[in-house]
């Protein structure tokens, strides 16, 4: 056993010889993309869903048009994707002492693509409402409720994958619903 920093604890008896200095802790494992290459990055998909929902919740149907809303959300989502991928790559490079490479950046952008996929349901809801001739206020409401349902469904699917049923599965669904209600609460707070 090792003493906590700042503590002086002698684990040796008078007759024992000093032990060598303990080896440093191993470096952090490579970023998830290295371990799970080829698998879907669901966490980033959920991040994209929630991020776009928050962006849409902040939209004002009296101050913006459909075109401004869609263009703003698409641009912001692309910037979130780029920022998220870049920050993940920087963190990995610091942990592994690697340099920035074009291939590493492309690989990280690919790994974080689910952010854009996750952003699709609420944005698609806005586009469908636009084509259907609904007001922008209605489109925003439909998009937010679409997000709430998608978050709850994601929690239920995650719960089923964990072999949950009954009360435990309901608790997971309630967590998803609570996150969705926070997004709706933001809408009410801002407008």
Largest sheet: none
What is the CA-CA span between the terminal residues? 57 Å
User: Treating each run of at least 4 consecutive H or I residues as one helix, how many helices?
Assistant: 8
Q: Quick check: average pLDDT?
A: 83
- Strand proportion, as a percent range, falls in under 5%
Radius of gyration: 23 Å
Find the structural class using helix and strand composition.
Answer: mainly alpha
Helix content: 55-70%
Low-confidence stretches: 1-16, 24-34
> What is the molecular shape?
flat
Q: What is the helix/strand order?
A: HHHHHHHH
Number of strands: 0
Question: In words, what does this structure look like?
Answer:
The longest helix has 31 residues, at 66-96. The termini are far apart. Helix 2 (42-57) packs antiparallel against helix 3 (66-96). The chain is 68% helix and 0% strand. It is mainly alpha-helical and 191 residues long.
Secondary-structure topology with pairs:
Blueprint: H1 32-35, H2 42-57, H3 66-96, H4 102-111, H5 114-118, H6 120-132, H7 136-161, H8 166-190
Helix pairs in contact: 2-3, 2-6, 2-7, 2-8, 3-4, 3-6, 6-7, 7-8
């Amino acid at each position: 056993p090792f003493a906590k920093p700042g503590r002086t604890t002698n684990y040796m008896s008078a007759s024992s010889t000093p032990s060598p200095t303990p080896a440093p802790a191993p470096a952090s494992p490579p970023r998830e993309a290295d371990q799970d290459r080829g698998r879907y990055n669901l966490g980033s998909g959920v991040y994209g869903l929630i991020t776009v929902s928050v962006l849409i919740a902040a939209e004002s149907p009296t101050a913006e048009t459909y075109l401004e809303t869609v263009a703003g959300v698409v641009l912001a989502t692309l910037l979130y994707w780029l920022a998220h991928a870049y920050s993940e790559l920087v963190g990995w490079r610091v942990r592994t002492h690697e340099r920035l490479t074009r291939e590493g950046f492309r690989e990280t952008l690919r790994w974080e693509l689910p952010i854009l996929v996750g952003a699709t349901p609420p944005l698609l809801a806005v586009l469908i409402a636009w084509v259907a001739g609904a007001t922008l206020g209605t489109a925003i409401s439909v998009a937010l409720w679409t997000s709430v349902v998608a978050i709850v469904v994601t929690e239920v699917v995650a719960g089923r994958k964990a072999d949950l049923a009954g009360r435990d599965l309901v608790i997971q669904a309630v967590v998803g619903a609570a996150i969705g209600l926070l997004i709706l609460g933001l809408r009410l707070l801002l407008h």
